[in-house]
Amino acid sequence: MSSPPKAQIGPSILNADLSSLASESQKLLNCGADYLHLDVMDGHFVPNLTFGHPMVASLRKAVPVALFDMHMMVSEPKKWIQPMADAGANQYTFHLEALAGDSDVKDCIRHVKEAGMRVGLGIKPNTAVERLYPFVEDIDCALVMTVEPGFGGQKFMSDMMSKVEALRQRYRQLDIEVDGGVGLNTIGQCADAGANWIVSGTGIINAPNPQLVIRQMRDAVNEAIQRAQLER
Ligand SMILES: O=C(CO)[C@H](O)[C@H](O)COP(=O)(O)O
Q1: What is the CATH number of the domain that holds 123?
Q2: Contact (CB, 8 A) for 34 and 8
Q3: 10 CB near ligand 1 (under 6 Å)
Q4: Residue 44, annotated as binding a ligand
Q5: How many structural domains does the chain have?
Q6: Is the CB of 177 under 6 A from ligand 1?
Q7: pLDDT tens string 214-228
Q8: Taking the CB of the first residue and of the last residue of the chain, which one, N or C, has fewer CB atoms within 10 A?
Q9: Strand blocks (E) in 67-134
Q10: Which one of 13, 14, 177 would you pick to mutate in the ligand 1 pocket, going by the greatest count of ligand atoms within 8 A of its CB?
Q11: Which residue has its alpha carbon closest to ligand 1 atom 5?
Q12: Across all residues in the chain, what is the average pLDDT?
């Protein structure tokens, strides 16, 4: 029998104190984070600018074992695959909208795999979920954005949950990631829809007790996975 997806909580460090990124990251891992979600923005694909592979390489030296999920909000995703792999990235999540056609997307997926990373493929809120379907068999994780990418602290878009539900109905074992506005007030919707990779930035970073938030989010997802198993 196939195993169900596992709950994974990945804090986004976008709104953390970036002057102390290594210690902030370690703190989140000590609080129970399953992975770190690192937002790379090029000021072109999205109207904001963050960091690139040199910073990831430095962070990797300070944080040797955590899973780094690179959320590549960049116009040229293929360009940064090898540099990010060399820097120590584990999952390379790029956006379908950044590439012109299906063959470019497939090519990018192939290169990420050849570089030894897990493949994540994301869609922005205005992109139909059906556009992911031709690639799902070849990827490890589908990212459904629940805000317009670019900034932390935005309002969760509940209407994106129908995309998560559609993906979960078709692909029982796929890792489905949600990102944007996810906190304790919205985790129930994400969990019920079938998301199991949960990105949360301000919901965790600004919480008085990040450890508790991470635990409650994981519990919500695991409970929803168990309910879904019983209903099958
Ligand atoms: O990709 C992102 C923005 O484009 C961030 O990961 C996301 O917004 C996380 O922050 P928050 O949980 O505060 O919305």
Answers
A1: 3.20.20.70
A2: yes
A3: no
A4: no
A5: 1
A6: no
A7: 999 999 999 999 999
A8: N
A9: 68-73, 91-95, 118-123
A10: 14
A11: 152
A12: 97
